[in-house]
Amino acid sequence: GGGGGDDDGDDDNDDANADMRSDDPYQHFAAVLMNATQTERGRKFAMRLEYKADGSTTSVLQSILPQLRSSNPVRRRGVAGAVKNCCFDKDSAYWLLNEVDLARHLLYPLAGPEELEPDEKVGLHPDLWIEGPDKVRESDATTRLLLVESVLLLCASGRRSRETLRAKRTYVILKVMDMTEEEEDVSTRVNDCVQFLRRDEEGTEEGSSDARAEEVYRGKRLLALPAPSASGGIGAGKAESSADYDDVD
């Protein structure tokens, strides 16, 4: 994607983003957390449960998820990176999908204004379609990439995770999103997710998907980018891929 004669419009967007960022003293916390979660210790910190006064539990990760809907693109990108890093913790996949309901948080920014068929809405969280034509899809390509790669890591964490993602109709949102996706890197990752979600249904050998998934986890280049990428180059331009999923088909 990318390129074209809309430089003036891009400059206007950059100016607006710069103004927005300069007025937000907390925007870089997400980028710091994204850096911290590149380590196992940082991921444990982000996902450590704390008990609230009413007896319920929460975590740093759960407290920052609403920022995926922030008007500040720096916040959104940093949080998406931290979330992706937490998805590397394979043992936490069940908790992320079932207790945190992470799929809904990941898919919301990827949902757009397109009208869904009634059968496509079955099993889909209302948040993902209730806004109708007013819904705006995430405009920053790198943030979209981080969100889709988070879904891919969850797909790769095991068959039960994929069953949960299928039950939550993840495929519907990804399919519709990909129809308008202009960034090849993002579209490629969407296709990787779809292949994972379909593979079990096609009756492949038990465990073959999980064996292939292990290859995803072995790569050290898969963690989200360090903080500078969270604050620089925000916009709808080319996604900055920090991943190499070439072994996943």
Automatic annotation (TrEMBL):
Composition skew (Acidic residues), residue ranges: 1-17
Domain Protein HGH1 N-terminal: 20-144
Spans annotated as Disordered: 1-22, 226-249
Superkingdom to which the source organism belongs: Eukaryota
Domain Protein HGH1 C-terminal: 150-204
InterPro entries: Hgh1, Protein_HGH1_C, Protein_HGH1_N
Pfam families assigned to the protein according to its UniProt record, in alphabetical order: DUF383, DUF384
Descriptive protein name: Protein HGH1 homolog
